[in-house]
Amino acid sequence: MTAFNNYTPRDNNPDGDKMSAIFVIFGGTGDLTHRKLMPAFYNMLLDGLLPVRFMVVSVGRRDLSEDEYRRQVYASIDRYSRNKPDDKAWSVLKDMIHYYKLDFTDLTGYHEFNGYLDKIDREAGIGGSRVFYLAVAPEYFETIVQGLKASGMHKPEGGFGRLVIEKPFGKDLVTAKKLNKELLKAFDESSIYRIDHYLGKEMIQNIMVLRFCNSIFEAIWNNKFIDNIQISLTEKLGVGTRQGYYENSGAMRDMVQNHIMQILTLVAMEPPVNLKTDSIRTEKLKVMEAIEDISPEFLRENVVFGQYGPGVIDGLPVPGYRQEPDVPVDSGTETFVALKLHINNFRWAGTPFYIRTGKRLARGSSEIVVQFKDLPNILYLKDRDFREPNLLVLRIQPGVGVYFQFNVRDFSTHNGIMSTKMDTSHVDAGQGNTPKAYERLIYDILKGDNTLFSRWDEVEAAWTVADRIITYREQKKHNFPNYDAGSMGPVRAFELLARDGRSWWNGGMI
Predict the structure, then answer these.
(1) With contact defined as beta carbons under 8 Å apart, do 233 and 255 qualify?
(2) Which of 7, 154, 223, 326 is 20 to 30 Å from 407 by CA-CA measure?
């Protein structure tokens, strides 16, 4: 555990006063707040990343006293935090946490709430800055923003006003545009933080460093040397308690439109002219705009949808998706997507990108596999049946790090060749279902650094791609379920690569 005496007040840091704020959480009694946000605040406190003049105000509909709410938060930190509660640290954080009962669908209550925030601000010497985090169901986003605008909270005097939106940002391009139009009535684009927790993970942040700080990789990061790139985000878990959300979302909206598209852009982008936020975002946008035209004819051969049936995970029987609580017995929602894409620019023309994500699979892992082209069958490869390619694997979770496979002589034989591995990966519990990624993202929000957050034109471009795929799925009848829980997905997902003479590199098999 990090020693609490390492906590350094931000008053001694040049950014300290700039980061002071009241962090308002709409949905303060919800699962996201208790599992991710509150443990993140606690660990940030231990690491000296919270400003001294900082308050958290959780907004909820339940009739709770402040002491009752704080006890609930303590229990959540004890259960979900990577550092268990320390009495001294908790006593500091506890005094920062407040609870306010508000029916946020009733716009008349926002003016009184604004007065409550002003009182806390004066007592704590915050200076007027507010962060509004919408940890609520998407149907409440517009209502809350309207309340913030009507009460004047969206533009506080003397400080900044920032809005944080959790996914999903709309359910298609039309609804995303409508939501964005409403948000822009109250907040500038630069003050809107569309959060994707995947971008807070260590290995995702490391993609640009690996590429642009190592000439050995950047020099060969193109279609001349790379045969294909695979992005796999696979899960052993089913839908759990998220069936209500997932039934209206599916794997396309839940994973592909946001997490996978963001990873794809970081892997494929050109070097930005500098490390400023807009320079990086602009290069990411160019990748999405270069994705080849996604027509129904293209998708007929290059996309596979799946839904899991009953099966066995880790030796235990598990139900199929349609047997999960509250899921319709004839549900057509996809729990698996495999997709082949091409990025039609000078760097990547001809190099396929294979994408795969799914639930109830045999292995749960998130990784990017870069497979380099084979050498011609001359010299050492002549007359040898040796076909182990060079691989660079960026492991996101649960193993975090970089894995490189290359070929050397096999000294146990006369003239054999063997593949060897260099692996920097290590198991990091903080990269699993924990708040660690949120710590980084919350810190960036307080600093005003929106590099790891999606700009509207990125969201628009991602929905443009996703909408075409979703429309194709909705118009085509699928024979679900089409893979057993505990397998690695539908047979057609393997055929997708086999047609190209390739195969999936599975996390546990490399």
Answers:
(1) yes
(2) 223
What one-character-per-residue DSSP string does 170-216 give?
A: -SSHHHHHHHHHHHHTTS-GGGEEEE-GGGGSHHHHHHHHHHHT-HH
Cβ 376 vs Cβ 361: under 8 Å: no
Amino acid (1-letter code) at residue 77: I
d(CA 357, CA 146): 36
Q: Which residue has the tokens 């936020």?
A: 277
In Å, how far from its chain's centre is CA 65?
A: 34
Count of residues making up the chain:
510
Where in 343-450 does DSSP place strands (E)?
352-358, 365-372, 391-397, 399-410, 416-423, 426-427
What pLDDT sits at residue 208? 86
Question: Looking up tokens 């992005």, which residue turns up?
Answer: 231
How far apart (Å, rounded) are the C-alpha atoms in residues 157 and 423?
Answer: 52
Query: Residue holding tokens 């593949």?
Result: 419
First to last CA, the chain: 33
pLDDT digits (tens, 9 = 90+) for 244-281: 889 989 999 999 999 999 999 999 999 999 878 889 99
CA–CA dist 163, 360 (Å, integer): 34
Tokens of 318: 């598990």
Q: Catalytic site residue 259?
A: yes
Residues 357, 360, 366, CA angle at the centre, nearest 5°? 40
Q: Determine the Cα–Cα distance for residues 132 and 417; give it in Å rounded to an integer.
A: 59
> From the candidates 259, 342, 414, 478, which is the catalytic residue?
259
Q: What is the dihedral of CA 455, 117, 80, 396, to 10 degrees?
A: 10
Residues with Cβ < 8 Å from 404, sequence gap 6 or more? Answer: 390, 391, 392, 393, 421, 422, 423
Cβ–Cβ < 8 Å for 235, 432: no
Please state, as a whole number, how many other Cβ atoms lie within 10 Å of the Cβ of residue 463. Answer: 25
All domains in the chain, ordered by first residue: 4-166 (3.40.50.720), 199-509 (3.30.360.10)
* Per-residue model confidence as pLDDT tens digits over 284-311: 999 999 999 899 999 999 999 999 999 9
